[in-house]
Amino acid sequence: MSDEIAIVFDIEKFAVHDGPGIRTVVFLKGCPLRCLWCHNPESQSFEQETMAGENGGPPEIVGKAMTVEEVMASVRKDKAFYDNSGGGLTISGGEPLAHFEFTRALLAAAKTESIHTAVETSGYAPRERIEALLPLVNLWLWDVKAPPSLHEKLVGCPAEPILDNLAFLSSRGASVVLRCPLVPGVNDSNEALRHIRRLSETTPGIVRIDIEPYHPMGEDKNRRLGRTDWFHAPFASDADKARWRTILQEWQAKNEQ
Ligand code: SF4
Which amino acids bring their CB within 6 angstroms of ligand 1? Predict the structure, then answer.
């Protein structure tokens, strides 16, 4: 077993929204992006941090250095649930591809134990990393955060390398779910939605679009991390959600028939 170590900030058991079936989601701490709406701001720094406690409670240390074997010891406990539900392991973050060696070793360990694997990623990473992980990943959960014209401003990096990586994955026959965090008035214009739809229509291998409505969960965490400049947006209205569905999920419904 590999001796790679990463800072893990959460291990979520019995998760049902991050890939098929019942899953364990391992959240790695550290991300090169800075999405304005990040709902897990404690995942951005690659270091352990102290966050003020919830509701005036004791401070929390965020992040724990763990080996691949320590994480696997937790993951394999639920193997029977994965087998019965078609679930498995999902690696999330932060950005798993920024923890390349650890992610690769953890995926390889899961594969050795016949556990289904998914990686949730922004896709912002050198091509070689994605290529190296291809044989180890059953399903990619690929974020589409903003159209190219707004990407750098809203997310902190250009869209082009991410789109190139997605095209590469598609050319290799990978299965991909597009995950679209939609923030009312920020990245949900009709132009932005049509960008997502075009991607879905022109990229073989995309099996589904997940719409993820903005949630202001990050605000309290930013406050507890001592930050003063956090972002705020309203919850999506019913009209917003209906417009999203009309543009995005019609495509999906058509392809699920
Ligand atoms: S990629 Fe994810 S973890 Fe990184 S800043 Fe964006 S929302 Fe936060």
Answer: 31, 33-35, 38, 40, 43-44, 93-95, 122
Helix or strand run (H / E) with residue 160:
helix 160-171
Helices and strands (H and E) in the chain: how many: 10, 10
Question: Tokens for 224?
Answer: 């507890």
Q: How far apart are CA 158 and CA 47, in angstroms?
A: 25
Ligand 1, atom nearest to 32 Cα: 4
pLDDT in tens, 99-109: 999 999 999 99
Residue 25 is part of which domain span? Answer: 5-256
Mean pLDDT, rounded, for 207-225: 91
CA of 145 from ligand 1 middle (Å) equals 10
Number of structural domains in the chain = 1
Q: Please report the atom of ligand 1 found closest to the CA of residue 155.
A: 6
CATH code, domain with 80: 3.20.20.70
pTM recorded for the entire structure: 0.95
> How far apart are alpha carbons 159 and 104 in whole angstroms?
24
Q: Which tens digits make up the pLDDT trace of 29-39? A: 999 999 999 99
Compute, in angstroms, the gap from residue 257 CA to the centroid of ligand 1: 33
Sign of CA dihedral 122, 128, 131, 136: negative
Q: Which residue puts its alpha carbon closest to atom 6 of ligand 1? A: 35
Answer for the pair 47, 64: CB distance below 8 angstroms, yes or no: no
